Amino acid sequence: MKNENMIHIAIENLNKTTGIKATWKETDKGAFDGVLTMNRKGEKLAFNVDVRKELRFHQLNAILNKERTGKPVLIIASKIFTTIKEYLRKNNIAYLEANGNVYIKYEDTLIWLDGNKPLEEKKVKTNRAFTKTGVKVLLLYLTEEEWLNRPYRQLAETAGVALGTIPLIIAALKKLGFLVNINKRLKLVNKEGLIKRWVEAYTEKLKPTIKLGHFMLDIKSEQNWKQIDWIDEQALWGGEPAADLLTNYLNPQKFTLYTTQNIKGLIKNYHLLPNENGQVAVYEKFWKFPDDTKKTAPPLIVYADLMHTNDSRCIETANIIYEQYLGENI
Q1: pTM tops 0.90
Q2: 252-264: per-residue pLDDT in tens?
Q3: DSSP H or E run through 8
Q4: If we measure between CA atoms, which residue out of 197, 148, 150, 191 comes closest to residue 169?
Q5: Which fold has domain 128-189?
Q6: What is the tens place of the pLDDT at every residue in 161-175?
Q7: Nearest residue to 4 via CA among 45, 33, 44, 37
Q8: Which of 263, 260, 271 is nearest to 220 (CA)?
Protein backbone atom coordinates (compact mmCIF):
# COMPACT_ATOMS: atom_id res chain seq x y z
CA MET A 1 0.00 0.00 0.00
CA LYS A 2 1.07 3.57 -0.71
CA ASN A 3 2.42 5.32 2.44
CA GLU A 4 2.49 2.00 4.38
CA ASN A 5 5.97 2.74 5.71
CA MET A 6 4.75 6.09 7.04
CA ILE A 7 1.83 4.35 8.80
CA HIS A 8 4.13 1.99 10.67
CA ILE A 9 6.48 4.85 11.60
CA ALA A 10 3.50 6.74 13.03
CA ILE A 11 2.40 3.69 15.04
CA GLU A 12 5.94 3.18 16.36
CA ASN A 13 6.29 6.82 17.39
CA LEU A 14 2.84 6.76 19.00
CA ASN A 15 4.01 3.88 21.19
CA LYS A 16 7.31 5.62 22.03
CA THR A 17 5.68 8.88 23.09
CA THR A 18 2.45 7.68 24.73
CA GLY A 19 2.94 3.98 25.49
CA ILE A 20 -0.13 3.16 23.40
CA LYS A 21 0.13 0.05 21.24
CA ALA A 22 -1.70 -0.06 17.93
CA THR A 23 -2.18 -2.50 15.09
CA TRP A 24 -2.86 -1.75 11.46
CA LYS A 25 -4.99 -3.72 9.02
CA GLU A 26 -5.34 -2.65 5.41
CA THR A 27 -8.78 -3.02 3.82
CA ASP A 28 -9.26 -4.05 0.22
CA LYS A 29 -12.77 -2.65 -0.05
CA GLY A 30 -14.63 0.32 1.34
CA ALA A 31 -14.07 4.04 1.45
CA PHE A 32 -11.18 3.98 3.92
CA ASP A 33 -7.60 2.73 3.62
CA GLY A 34 -7.70 0.50 6.66
CA VAL A 35 -8.49 0.05 10.34
CA LEU A 36 -6.23 1.07 13.21
CA THR A 37 -6.89 -0.58 16.56
CA MET A 38 -5.37 0.98 19.65
CA ASN A 39 -4.89 -0.85 22.92
CA ARG A 40 -4.81 1.48 25.89
CA LYS A 41 -4.89 0.03 29.41
CA GLY A 42 -6.81 -2.99 28.18
CA GLU A 43 -9.34 -0.90 26.29
CA LYS A 44 -9.49 -1.25 22.50
CA LEU A 45 -10.42 1.60 20.19
CA ALA A 46 -10.87 0.89 16.47
CA PHE A 47 -10.82 3.62 13.81
CA ASN A 48 -11.56 3.85 10.11
CA VAL A 49 -8.37 5.39 8.74
CA ASP A 50 -7.77 7.78 5.87
CA VAL A 51 -4.07 8.01 5.00
CA ARG A 52 -2.49 11.12 3.50
CA LYS A 53 1.09 12.23 2.98
CA GLU A 54 0.12 15.83 3.70
CA LEU A 55 -3.43 16.82 4.57
CA ARG A 56 -4.96 19.81 2.80
CA PHE A 57 -8.11 21.77 3.65
CA HIS A 58 -9.76 21.01 0.33
CA GLN A 59 -9.50 17.26 1.06
CA LEU A 60 -11.40 17.37 4.36
CA ASN A 61 -14.89 17.55 2.90
CA ALA A 62 -14.36 14.39 0.83
CA ILE A 63 -12.93 12.55 3.85
CA LEU A 64 -15.79 13.50 6.15
CA ASN A 65 -18.40 12.54 3.54
CA LYS A 66 -17.08 9.00 3.18
CA GLU A 67 -19.51 6.24 4.03
CA ARG A 68 -18.83 5.11 7.60
CA THR A 69 -19.21 1.70 9.22
CA GLY A 70 -19.82 2.67 12.82
CA LYS A 71 -16.20 3.37 13.71
CA PRO A 72 -14.84 6.88 14.32
CA VAL A 73 -12.54 8.36 11.68
CA LEU A 74 -8.79 8.80 12.21
CA ILE A 75 -6.55 10.64 9.76
CA ILE A 76 -2.93 9.49 9.54
CA ALA A 77 -0.59 11.89 7.76
CA SER A 78 3.12 12.48 7.51
CA LYS A 79 2.51 16.11 8.39
CA ILE A 80 -0.57 18.17 9.29
CA PHE A 81 -0.37 21.95 9.29
CA THR A 82 -1.23 23.78 12.52
CA THR A 83 -4.33 25.48 11.12
CA ILE A 84 -5.73 22.15 9.92
CA LYS A 85 -5.01 20.48 13.27
CA GLU A 86 -6.94 23.28 14.98
CA TYR A 87 -9.87 22.65 12.65
CA LEU A 88 -9.76 18.89 13.26
CA ARG A 89 -9.74 19.33 17.04
CA LYS A 90 -12.56 21.86 16.88
CA ASN A 91 -14.64 19.35 14.92
CA ASN A 92 -13.58 16.38 17.05
CA ILE A 93 -11.77 14.55 14.26
CA ALA A 94 -8.94 12.25 15.37
CA TYR A 95 -5.51 12.48 13.77
CA LEU A 96 -2.07 10.92 14.06
CA GLU A 97 1.12 12.36 12.55
CA ALA A 98 4.15 10.31 11.60
CA ASN A 99 6.12 11.92 14.47
CA GLY A 100 3.62 10.58 17.02
CA ASN A 101 1.62 13.76 17.57
CA VAL A 102 -1.95 12.62 18.14
CA TYR A 103 -5.44 13.87 18.99
CA ILE A 104 -8.25 11.50 19.92
CA LYS A 105 -11.41 12.43 21.79
CA TYR A 106 -13.80 9.52 21.94
CA GLU A 107 -16.45 9.03 24.63
CA ASP A 108 -14.53 9.46 27.91
CA THR A 109 -11.08 9.08 26.31
CA LEU A 110 -8.89 12.10 25.49
CA ILE A 111 -5.40 11.63 24.03
CA TRP A 112 -3.69 14.82 22.88
CA LEU A 113 0.02 15.22 22.22
CA ASP A 114 1.45 17.98 20.05
CA GLY A 115 5.02 18.48 21.23
CA ASN A 116 6.97 16.15 18.96
CA LYS A 117 9.24 17.80 16.44
CA PRO A 118 8.68 17.08 12.74
CA LEU A 119 10.60 14.10 11.43
CA GLU A 120 13.79 14.99 9.64
CA GLU A 121 13.38 14.93 5.91
CA LYS A 122 15.94 15.14 3.18
CA LYS A 123 16.69 18.76 2.56
CA VAL A 124 15.73 19.91 -0.89
CA LYS A 125 16.33 23.19 -2.54
CA THR A 126 13.36 25.43 -1.80
CA ASN A 127 11.14 26.09 -4.76
CA ARG A 128 10.47 29.82 -4.70
CA ALA A 129 7.12 29.62 -6.50
CA PHE A 130 5.08 28.72 -3.43
CA THR A 131 6.83 30.57 -0.63
CA LYS A 132 5.08 33.55 0.98
CA THR A 133 6.88 35.80 -1.51
CA GLY A 134 5.98 33.52 -4.41
CA VAL A 135 2.30 33.61 -3.40
CA LYS A 136 2.29 37.42 -3.61
CA VAL A 137 3.88 37.44 -7.06
CA LEU A 138 1.67 34.64 -8.36
CA LEU A 139 -1.42 36.56 -7.32
CA LEU A 140 -0.42 39.20 -9.88
CA TYR A 141 0.28 36.61 -12.58
CA LEU A 142 -3.00 34.79 -12.04
CA THR A 143 -5.02 38.02 -11.81
CA GLU A 144 -3.54 39.55 -14.97
CA GLU A 145 -1.14 37.41 -16.97
CA GLU A 146 0.37 40.46 -18.67
CA TRP A 147 2.36 41.03 -15.46
CA LEU A 148 4.63 38.22 -16.64
CA ASN A 149 6.05 40.45 -19.36
CA ARG A 150 6.36 43.70 -17.44
CA PRO A 151 9.63 45.02 -15.96
CA TYR A 152 10.84 43.17 -12.89
CA ARG A 153 11.11 46.39 -10.90
CA GLN A 154 7.48 47.32 -11.55
CA LEU A 155 6.39 43.80 -10.61
CA ALA A 156 8.44 43.77 -7.40
CA GLU A 157 7.09 47.16 -6.29
CA THR A 158 3.49 46.18 -6.97
CA ALA A 159 3.80 42.79 -5.27
CA GLY A 160 5.76 44.27 -2.36
CA VAL A 161 8.70 41.87 -2.69
CA ALA A 162 12.45 42.14 -3.21
CA LEU A 163 13.55 42.68 -6.81
CA GLY A 164 15.95 39.72 -6.71
CA THR A 165 13.17 37.22 -5.98
CA ILE A 166 11.37 37.74 -9.31
CA PRO A 167 13.79 35.80 -11.58
CA LEU A 168 13.95 33.03 -8.96
CA ILE A 169 10.16 32.68 -8.97
CA ILE A 170 10.04 32.68 -12.76
CA ALA A 171 12.73 29.99 -12.91
CA ALA A 172 10.81 27.91 -10.36
CA LEU A 173 7.57 28.15 -12.37
CA LYS A 174 9.40 27.05 -15.52
CA LYS A 175 10.96 24.10 -13.69
CA LEU A 176 7.53 23.00 -12.43
CA GLY A 177 6.04 23.25 -15.92
CA PHE A 178 3.71 26.16 -15.20
CA LEU A 179 5.51 28.69 -17.39
CA VAL A 180 6.72 28.59 -20.98
CA ASN A 181 8.34 31.02 -23.38
CA ILE A 182 6.43 31.50 -26.64
CA ASN A 183 7.67 34.00 -29.24
CA LYS A 184 9.86 35.67 -26.58
CA ARG A 185 6.88 36.18 -24.27
CA LEU A 186 6.13 34.30 -21.06
CA LYS A 187 2.86 32.40 -20.81
CA LEU A 188 1.26 30.38 -18.01
CA VAL A 189 0.22 26.80 -18.70
CA ASN A 190 -1.76 24.30 -16.60
CA LYS A 191 -3.48 27.17 -14.81
CA GLU A 192 -5.91 24.81 -13.14
CA GLY A 193 -3.05 23.00 -11.40
CA LEU A 194 -1.31 26.29 -10.63
CA ILE A 195 -4.42 27.75 -9.00
CA LYS A 196 -4.77 24.62 -6.86
CA ARG A 197 -1.15 24.91 -5.70
CA TRP A 198 -1.57 28.65 -5.09
CA VAL A 199 -4.64 28.16 -2.90
CA GLU A 200 -2.79 25.59 -0.78
CA ALA A 201 0.29 27.79 -0.40
CA TYR A 202 -1.73 30.93 0.36
CA THR A 203 -3.87 29.16 2.96
CA GLU A 204 -1.01 27.42 4.72
CA LYS A 205 1.95 29.79 4.38
CA LEU A 206 0.86 33.38 3.86
CA LYS A 207 -2.64 33.79 5.26
CA PRO A 208 -1.84 32.79 8.88
CA THR A 209 0.96 35.39 8.96
CA ILE A 210 -1.25 38.33 7.89
CA LYS A 211 -4.13 37.77 10.30
CA LEU A 212 -4.81 40.77 12.54
CA GLY A 213 -7.46 39.01 14.64
CA HIS A 214 -11.20 38.70 15.12
CA PHE A 215 -13.40 41.75 15.69
CA MET A 216 -16.99 42.52 16.59
CA LEU A 217 -19.30 44.25 14.11
CA ASP A 218 -22.33 45.93 15.66
CA ILE A 219 -25.73 44.37 14.92
CA LYS A 220 -26.91 47.20 12.68
CA SER A 221 -23.77 47.04 10.55
CA GLU A 222 -23.96 43.25 10.37
CA GLN A 223 -27.53 43.37 9.12
CA ASN A 224 -26.78 46.16 6.64
CA TRP A 225 -23.20 45.29 5.78
CA LYS A 226 -23.61 46.21 2.10
CA GLN A 227 -24.32 49.82 3.13
CA ILE A 228 -21.21 50.22 5.30
CA ASP A 229 -19.57 53.42 4.05
CA TRP A 230 -15.98 52.71 5.09
CA ILE A 231 -15.46 49.90 2.61
CA ASP A 232 -12.97 51.32 0.11
CA GLU A 233 -9.46 50.65 -1.20
CA GLN A 234 -8.20 50.52 2.40
CA ALA A 235 -10.75 47.91 3.51
CA LEU A 236 -12.21 45.27 1.21
CA TRP A 237 -14.46 42.31 1.82
CA GLY A 238 -13.10 38.79 1.41
CA GLY A 239 -14.67 35.40 2.08
CA GLU A 240 -18.45 35.14 2.33
CA PRO A 241 -19.46 38.81 1.94
CA ALA A 242 -17.18 39.18 -1.09
CA ALA A 243 -18.65 36.00 -2.54
CA ASP A 244 -22.16 37.44 -2.19
CA LEU A 245 -21.10 40.64 -3.96
CA LEU A 246 -19.44 38.67 -6.76
CA THR A 247 -22.19 36.08 -7.28
CA ASN A 248 -25.33 37.27 -5.46
CA TYR A 249 -25.60 33.64 -4.34
CA LEU A 250 -24.36 33.38 -0.75
CA ASN A 251 -25.90 34.90 2.37
CA PRO A 252 -22.87 35.65 4.61
CA GLN A 253 -22.78 34.11 8.07
CA LYS A 254 -19.13 34.94 8.75
CA PHE A 255 -17.24 38.01 7.60
CA THR A 256 -13.71 38.41 6.27
CA LEU A 257 -12.06 41.79 5.82
CA TYR A 258 -8.75 42.73 4.18
CA THR A 259 -7.38 46.11 5.20
CA THR A 260 -4.34 48.40 5.20
CA GLN A 261 -5.35 49.64 8.67
CA ASN A 262 -3.61 48.47 11.84
CA ILE A 263 -5.56 47.43 14.93
CA LYS A 264 -5.67 51.00 16.29
CA GLY A 265 -7.05 52.17 12.93
CA LEU A 266 -9.72 49.48 12.93
CA ILE A 267 -10.91 50.61 16.36
CA LYS A 268 -10.71 54.35 15.67
CA ASN A 269 -11.89 54.54 12.07
CA TYR A 270 -14.20 51.55 11.72
CA HIS A 271 -15.36 51.07 15.33
CA LEU A 272 -14.39 47.41 15.22
CA LEU A 273 -13.61 46.01 18.67
CA PRO A 274 -11.12 43.14 19.13
CA ASN A 275 -12.94 40.00 20.25
CA GLU A 276 -11.66 36.46 19.68
CA ASN A 277 -15.28 35.35 19.21
CA GLY A 278 -16.10 38.21 16.86
CA GLN A 279 -17.79 37.51 13.54
CA VAL A 280 -15.23 39.45 11.47
CA ALA A 281 -11.84 37.89 10.72
CA VAL A 282 -9.47 40.68 9.65
CA TYR A 283 -6.35 40.25 7.53
CA GLU A 284 -3.68 42.56 6.18
CA LYS A 285 -4.31 43.66 2.59
CA PHE A 286 -1.00 42.70 1.02
CA TRP A 287 -1.63 43.43 -2.68
CA LYS A 288 -1.15 46.88 -4.19
CA PHE A 289 -2.68 46.65 -7.65
CA PRO A 290 -5.96 48.52 -8.24
CA ASP A 291 -9.15 46.79 -7.12
CA ASP A 292 -12.40 46.80 -9.06
CA THR A 293 -15.54 48.70 -8.02
CA LYS A 294 -17.18 45.72 -6.30
CA LYS A 295 -15.37 46.45 -3.04
CA THR A 296 -13.99 42.94 -2.80
CA ALA A 297 -10.61 41.27 -2.64
CA PRO A 298 -9.48 39.72 -5.96
CA PRO A 299 -11.63 36.70 -6.93
CA LEU A 300 -8.69 34.32 -6.46
CA ILE A 301 -8.36 35.34 -2.81
CA VAL A 302 -12.12 35.09 -2.28
CA TYR A 303 -12.06 31.62 -3.85
CA ALA A 304 -9.25 30.55 -1.49
CA ASP A 305 -11.11 31.98 1.52
CA LEU A 306 -14.20 29.94 0.68
CA MET A 307 -12.32 26.71 -0.01
CA HIS A 308 -10.60 27.12 3.35
CA THR A 309 -13.93 26.97 5.24
CA ASN A 310 -14.75 23.35 4.40
CA ASP A 311 -18.40 24.53 4.42
CA SER A 312 -20.47 22.96 1.62
CA ARG A 313 -22.42 26.15 0.84
CA CYS A 314 -19.15 28.13 0.65
CA ILE A 315 -17.45 25.53 -1.53
CA GLU A 316 -20.44 25.53 -3.89
CA THR A 317 -20.13 29.31 -4.19
CA ALA A 318 -16.36 28.99 -4.64
CA ASN A 319 -16.99 26.78 -7.66
CA ILE A 320 -19.25 29.47 -9.13
CA ILE A 321 -16.50 32.07 -8.63
CA TYR A 322 -14.01 29.71 -10.25
CA GLU A 323 -16.21 29.27 -13.33
CA GLN A 324 -17.10 32.96 -13.66
CA TYR A 325 -13.80 34.64 -12.77
CA LEU A 326 -10.93 32.14 -12.76
CA GLY A 327 -11.67 29.36 -15.22
CA GLU A 328 -12.67 31.44 -18.21
CA ASN A 329 -9.07 31.86 -19.44
CA ILE A 330 -7.83 28.37 -18.58
Answers
A1: no
A2: 999 999 999 999 9
A3: helix 4-18
A4: 148
A5: Arc Repressor Mutant, subunit A (1.10.10)
A6: 999 999 999 999 999
A7: 33
A8: 271
